[in-house]
Write a structure and sequence with these properties.
Blueprint (H helix, E strand, L loop, with lengths): L4 H15 L3 H5 L4 E4 L10 H10 L4 E3 L5 H6 L6 E6 L4 H6 L1 H11 L9 E6 L9 H20 L7 E3 L1 E2 L4 E3 L7 E2 L4 H14 L3 E4 L2 H7 L6 H4 L7 E3 L4 E3 L2 H15 L7 E6 L14 H16 L14 E4 L47 H23 L1
Helix pairs in contact: 6-7, 7-8
């Protein structure tokens, strides 16, 4: 069927008005999620991961591809999952809607509705990255994926988005002074215009750990870890910030506002703290990782906004679910996990159903044990129901 450009954008406007206020809750249940990276050779099976997530009551997950085994394992779990079109496929997807349609039919549609796929990320940290060709194809790729979802009548339940790194900003201190880089604006503006039309939030990867690691002499680690500290005062907005995380979120809001997108929601697509690092990676300790992630979880569970956007509830995906032993780069890259490869927790931040692994603890309930327990309970319930029926 042929659609004129005018008809297409009228449809975009319709979807924007209809779904902009309900998309957030559909894509993101509550305020807390995790990134499930798998650059490792020692991780538990996806089926075991689903068991772990349920035990920890984590209901939102992002993955960096559309792995068949993972999507099959999440079937019937009720966990909202966001998949990703890998960076290396963006050029092909940008060529035409048919390429996007083929990708969705292969990687998304077969798993619906059993697997709760609620988002498709178009690449990861494209703008501000080193491949300028990807900057140019980001918007066409996003539009093609969205158009394909529309044709399949899935655009109302699967959100198209893309996460950005802090590299898209020229500056972010104080929060009110934040602006996008000039060289990125020709690509960011049309992307934001399109996302505004279809009701997509702005996703930012915000890492106080990286800011502190790069400048430990001038950044108070207590400010980065949500601990008691003098904080900072933004003279323009007359707002006080006692933690860097909310300052980074409000910096994104300030940059969006300067471009006319003051109604766009900001969601943190990645944040976390490394539990181990190289000698030159300040702050990368188990104690600091536990403090950051525990305090962050407390903040998110309050379901409140930021100083600059008090009515916009803060939502964030934590990086990451597991330590990933095959990730390249400094030691910290391989030590962001909330959980160890065997499924035990890296440090206690209050998850229920799991216990920390230590020399004094031998009561860890293994995946096999949890699965056996579920099976035993299910069998007992079934037997009881049979007796009642008789």
């Amino acid at each position: 069927m042929f659609y004129s450009s005018t008809s297409f954008f009228l449809c975009l406007l319709f979807f924007s008005i209809t779904f902009s206020h309900v998309f957030g809750d559909k894509v993101f249940t509550g305020t807390y999620g995790v990134n499930y990276g798998r650059v490792a050779d020692n991780l538990p099976s996806p089926e075991s991961v689903v068991t772990l997530l349920k035990a920890a009551k984590i209901r939102n997950v992002r993955i960096y591809d559309a792995d068949r085994q993972v999507l099959s394992a999440f079937k019937g779990s009720g966990i909202a999952i966001s998949v990703c079109v890998p960076n290396e496929l963006l050029k092909e997807i940008s060529v035409g809607e048919d390429r996007a349609m083929n990708w969705i039919k292969q990687n998304v549609e077969p798993y619906l509705p059993g697997t709760k796929i609620r988002g498709i990320s178009i690449g990861n940290e494209i703008l501000g990255g080193g491949d300028m060709e990807l900057w140019e194809v980001l918007v066409p790729a996003a539009k093609n994926v969205y158009a394909a979802l529309q044709r399949l009548n899935l655009a109302h339940q699967i959100q198209v988005s893309t996460p950005h790194s802090e590299a898209v900003f020229a500056n972010s201190y104080p929060p009110s002074a934040c602006t996008f880089r000039e060289d990125i604006l020709p690509f960011m503006k049309p992307l934001l215009q399109f996302f505004s039309q279809i009701g997509t939030p702005f996703y930012i990867n915000a890492y106080p750990f990286l800011a502190y690691k790069n400048d430990p002499q001038h950044i108070d680690i207590n400010y980065a870890l949500f601990k008691k500290n003098p904080g900072i005062y933004d003279a323009k907005t007359k707002l006080h910030y006692d933690n860097m995380f909310l300052a980074q979120v409000d910096a994104a809001y300030a940059a969006l506002e300067k471009l006319g997108f003051d109604k766009m929601e900001v969601i943190v697509s990645e944040t976390g703290w490394a539990s181990k690092g190289d000698d030159n990676e300040a702050g990368a300790t188990v104690k600091n990782a536990r403090t950051y992630n525990k305090n962050l979880r407390k903040l998110l569970l309050k379901k409140k906004g930021t100083p600059y956007r008090p009515k916009m509830v803060v939502r964030a995906y934590i990086f990451a679910l597991f330590n990933e032993n095959l990730k390249p780069g400094p030691t910290s890259e391989r030590n962001f996990g909330l959980f160890k490869p065997d499924g035990s927790i890296s440090y206690d931040i209050g998850f229920t159903g799991l216990v920390p692994s230590s020399a004094t603890t031998s009561s860890f309930l293994s995946f096999k044990g949890i699965g056996s327990l579920y099976a035993m309970v299910s069998t007992s319930c079934a037997a009881f129901l049979l007796l009642v029926a008789l």
